[in-house]
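Why do we bother with a discrete structure alphabet at all? Because it lets us treat a fold like text: something you can write down, compare, and reason about line by line. To make this less abstract, here is a complete entry for Twinfilin. Read it the way you would read a sentence in a foreign language you are learning: slowly, and without expecting to understand everything at once.
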Amino acid sequence: MVVIRELNLVESCCVRVYCRLAGYFSYFIGVGIYRMSHQTGIRANDALKKFFGKCRGGNVRVFKVSIVNEELALSSFKEASGTWEEDYDSLVTPLIEDEQPSYILYRLDSKNTSGYEWLLISWSPDNSAVRQKMLYASTKATLKQEFGSGQIKEELHATTPDDVTLSGFRRHKRAAGAPAPLTSAEEELAELRRTEVGVGVSIDSRHQTLSGVAFPLTGNAWKAIEALAAQKYNYVQLRIDVNEEKIHLADAGDISTDKLSQKIPSDCARYHLYNFKHIHEGDYIEAIVFIYSMPGYSCSVKERMLYSSCKAPLLESIETQIGLPIIKKLEIDCGEEITEAFLQDEIHPKKNLHRPKFAKPKGPPNRGAKRLTRPQESSGNV
């Protein structure tokens, strides 16, 4: 009997370790899946592949590639006549078309071990069809692979004619090298961390954290999240049953981003999982967003506390056990905040080129001469 109990204990431990490792591996695999650009299967035709070899000679300055009959095809090309900066505006800007995306590869004068280095411009005008934008964004990875990723030094995603100009390219490079924007509080905290003196921690030190309340997911809620991970849905809504102390499925399905705000209740709290499919700088990206909606004080104190406490354990279960990577976590008061532009800014925050600093104001002029106070002389004689 003792031997059987020991074997059962060892088997149980092995199962737990296996499940934990499986959760970790599925999480990292999931991160790779959701960050990877989806490809369309469109390949370069034979004429374009042959032209790629001609580009190695150094005579071609720029060429344009379009998707024609589900193939990458050469549209036009121009040879170099001056330096890359001298040729840029006169050769690149005539290649763009209104309402029609395309790829433009422009040869720089610098070299690496693979040969000349190139700039890849993804032209995707705002007024072009959404299907065309998606198609070109999803095929860009294939174009880079067939041309040679090692030769592409710079990439530029352009939506307006001004973005394609040489000044627009330089502006893009400055923005790419700028630090991420910080609030005043974050700047003060960073300065404090740079100047602070380390504080010793003894063996008697204690660090306590509130781990939260782990309410279990119902079977339907669990299956819906797994379906979202398998891309059967792009939206799942969860609710807490205060009496049962369980997390139930409230809604699930496929919705567009402009309809997402209509799914946010105005009278009760909810958890939302949404697969935000979008284009950023020419790349097609799918990002799982977790939204915690709490409509102010229209909910009871108990409900607000439970939703706040259950959030962290729920996120841990979704990411480690189901293996669904959550790219962004948001808290909102109402559904009106959720727009495509809002989600784009949250997932891809813009960088500031310059952050103006307010100069210390000068003091008032003509303050007058300083007053001198002399000690009083004693009137009595000793």
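What the structure line is telling us, in plain words: The radius of gyration is 30 Å. The CA atoms of residues 31 and 325 lie 6 Å apart.
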